[in-house]
Amino acid sequence: MDFGTNLKQLRKEKNLTQEELAECLSVSPQTVSKWENNISMPDLSMLPVLADYFGITVDILIRHDTNHEKAEVKELAKSVHALANEGKLYESYKLLKDSRGKWALSASMNHLMSWALFKLSQGKESNERQELLEEAIMYADRSIRLDGGETSRTAQAKMTKCVCMYDLGRKAEAVRIAETLPSMYSSRERVLVKVTEGDERNDYIRLALQFLDELHDEIVAT
Description:
By secondary structure, this protein is mainly alpha-helical. It has 14 helices and no strands. Helix content is 75%, strand content 0%.
């Protein structure tokens, strides 16, 4: 089901006319009509408002991906990661940019674009680096808005945004956002060790210690 059809169905379930919904959202009835007929899409800032009004998540509101499209986006993400792992950072960014129409409303893919831009910015000259980092922050913000702060994708997007801000010299802003991220003490690794037993618990202990070793090496190398 596309966005327009989904919106129309949600509106009718609330027994609202286009005029009544438009009044609630402070937009014109013509705007609602265009949304329902897929002539235009709401601004990103309007999506959480619509989702909250209907008591659903943004993902459910959009219903942008059919099963085929979801599989296509998943394969695209794999290709982007593969190129990046081979050191082909520009190619990974270009692949994302050229296929943006397929993932524009995907929170995870907007974060992937943010990450790709951050990686691409490393080693660039000052002006180009600044432009790439600012674009990365824009995509991180899109990811956060689309996710609605509901999942770990928001935390990941905030992490990318923080390092971009730090690289731009906006250290105070980076710290302020970092302080809103979950603590290590509320991590799934810590909880899984507490709620499992025997061999399963030992496996999770090994994974947690491995993570701590990798974190230690990353911090020392910084």
